[in-house]
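SAMPLE LOG
Freezer: B-3
Tube label: C17
Construct: single chain, 154 aa
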Amino acid sequence: MQIVKLNIKNKFRIPYEYLERLSNKTSQTEGWLFKTHTYTKEQLISSPEHHKIYSVTEKIGTDLQLWYKLGQITEDQHQEYIEERNEVEYRLKRLNESIQYRKPTLWEHIKQPLIQFVIVVMKNLPATLKERFLKIAAAKAIPLLKRISNSISL
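STRUCTURE (predicted):
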């Protein structure tokens, strides 16, 4: 068997690019007065970038483990692969933690109790008033109230 000349760091270029993209999305906000995060925690965790980090590193691992077993890469190359894989895992773990424990914006912090209050009020309204209020809100296309109306069963 012939030893393959590989640049292991170059193989991990794509996962590092996706880590960077995902990291940038984590702190991205929109709005001027009522700033909110552009992406929810759930959207970030289930994002295409997140999935591609896993799939690309898994493919790299499968290829390099096979080549190592076949004697096509050196022990040094195998160790370099392990170090790079560990680095990607470490960065992804840190990124997942930063997503999970991300602080809400001021508006997100204020908005959540307001939504909960409206839900409690809506649940305690008589059915006829609730239906009337929801129809008015839906007709005026107020996004917040439309979301609340979808979460409240009549």
